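Troubleshooting: if your tokenizer reports a length mismatch, compare your output against this known-good record of 399 residues.
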Amino acid sequence: MDTASTGAYDDVRTAPRALATEAVHAGRDDLVRQGLHAPPIDLSTTYPSHESRAEAARIDAFAADGADPDGPPVYGRLGNPTVARFETALARLEGTESAVAFASGMAALGAVLLARSATGLRHVVAVRPLYGCSDHLLTAGLLGTEVTWTDPAGIADALRPDTGLVMVESPANPTLAELDLRAVAHACGSVPLLADNTFATPVLQRPAEQGARLVLHSATKYLGGHGDVLAGVVACDGELAGRLRQIRFATGGVLHPLAGYLLLRGLSTLPVRVRAASANAAELARRLAADPRVARVRYPRLGGAMVAFEVHGDPHEVISRVRLVTPAVSLGSVDTLIQHPASISHRIVDAGDRRGAGVGDRLLRLSVGLEDVDDLWADLDRALGERTRTPAPLREAVR
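Known-good structure output:
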């Protein structure tokens, strides 16, 4: 049996390890004694057993608190050993007790909202900007939630008896605005804080150490890192993880084992990728800030591989002229991507709310990859066009 599903290999780690070491070894600690080097991929959807009474007991235990069932796996929707390896590794990197993986980042956020609503806590306090689809899910109330939008200073006053969650993103998508997560967590009191850590990754910050009770990732981005896997994950304490597993089992938003394998593989190079891409991003931010064709550059104090910048000219023309940089949504891949948030990632947000959160019509979002920085700059320099400061009229993007 693959012992990753039981956590039986956890005793192998006897001392604290650096993040780079955890990235390579967490979730794999049992492989040597199994005579393996690469983690196995368990593609089974169901598992045979002649011990039906024991299976019934494990299912009853799961129904009670959502804990990982002891013993052999039962069914793919209840859990998968390959996915469990990724969950173990991500929890180690974020410094939490547990992590629960889902089919996408939005499935992960949806599970959190359903878990809180199920206890009667349907009210959410949130700070803009957030990823556009996260904003839409909260604003539209599609899962029966009600949201109060506020700035960080207003969080405490926005809390109500039925508030089940406070949600923030730092650095935020797409403006890269940063929050003092420790101060935000203090303002939340006993209400759980959910911090979206997709942009920073545990390489640059670990929100749980600053008081966040849940840490959300669109694992599609940096955790996978190669643009070939769609996934989401929530790192949290054991109690909340149990509730999320129950929601995942009931709603079916499970992560495919192959995706779990790719994510575990992606984690092994996460520190190297993030640091190399961050060095490129910092240099591009410096060059963009000195360029007269650029009106404003936003780059986090924390660092990272994301750059946001506003141009004097037409941002759609910049998108159309890149050749090395890929004009595409998403982020966190080994190649550099550029997109226009007001047209794509945040188009679903009301235009007034979007602009109020700093997502202007001339803003471009750059996810910097691992290419040579001079090659990237040559492409951006060409795409920015002639060196003139005269603002060009904007074309309205097609809805």
